[in-house]
Amino acid sequence: MNNLVAFCALLVAAVSAYNFEDPDFNILLSDDLEELSSGVASFSHPRSRRDDEAVNDKDKCHHRKRWGELCCAEDVMAKMRDVEKDLKRECFKEVVGKDKHEKFDPFNCETMDQRKKQIVCVIQCVGQKKDLLDTEGNPKEEEFRSFLKESFSSESWLAALQDKVISTCLDEGKNATANRDASDSTSCNPAGIKIAHCLHREIQLNCPADQIKDEKSCARLQERLKRRDFFHPPPPPGAFDEPDN
After folding, report:
1. Residue 189 is part of a domain; what is its CATH number?
2. Which is nearest to 100 in space by CA: 38, 29, 32?
3. Secondary structure of residue 133 in the 3-state scheme
4. Hey, what's the torsion of the CAs at 122, 12, 178, 204, to 10 degrees?
5. How many domains does the chain have?
6. Helix 215-227 / helix 23-38 crossing angle, nearest 10 deg
7. At residue 232, does pLDDT exceed 90?
8. pLDDT digits over 198-223, tens only?
9. φ, ψ (nearest 5 deg) of residue 78
10. Using one digit for the tens of pLDDT, what is the confidence trace for 18-58?
11. Residue 135 in contact with residue 128, Cβ under 8 Å?
12. Helix and strand element counts for the chain (H, E)
């Protein structure tokens, strides 16, 4: 099983220039894709999902294990997702060619690769419809800055960080475009998803103490984000001990 996952990860990294190695961000992507592919327009706020989970706490099998909640900015991030939901649904149909997916084998590398390509393309499509990405999927810097500054303006602490966060994430988007495999005409530009992931990471890493809802959960999330080594757990105790003579 580990070999299959490793092989699929390498395959996707090769074709999309985005490695999908951040499980916390993958949860957000998976939620979007599940809602789009099922044809259900839920896009619920994280707090609403937590309330639902509390009500159904006795029925654990109906809820996926989450990697932890966001440290902060739930309202801002949820609002950005809600604003985009109709565009995402429209783009999903354009990319996939239909309103929803058929059932698929989650252990099939080819299917996994296809799904990941599709989410990259959906995000590119949304960015283009919002005039944040050009026809090739490259970031339009001035438009992106204006959009993000407006999105962040409702939170004074976030507005104070905006120049640093925006510059960092635009640079990552540009680098993703520069490292793109131009020989693969079927792949979309990863700049959009790289910027989206960067915004998720940088905002969570820079949450001020008075905005953090759950300190322990946030500390674990921030440690994963700082390591950028999401799928490599720490070695077991004694792994590096010198052998007895």
Report:
1. 1.10.238
2. 38
3. strand
4. 70
5. 1
6. 100
7. no
8. 999 999 999 999 999 899 999 999 99
9. -65, -40
10. 788 888 888 888 887 777 766 544 444 444 444 444 434 43
11. yes
12. 9, 0
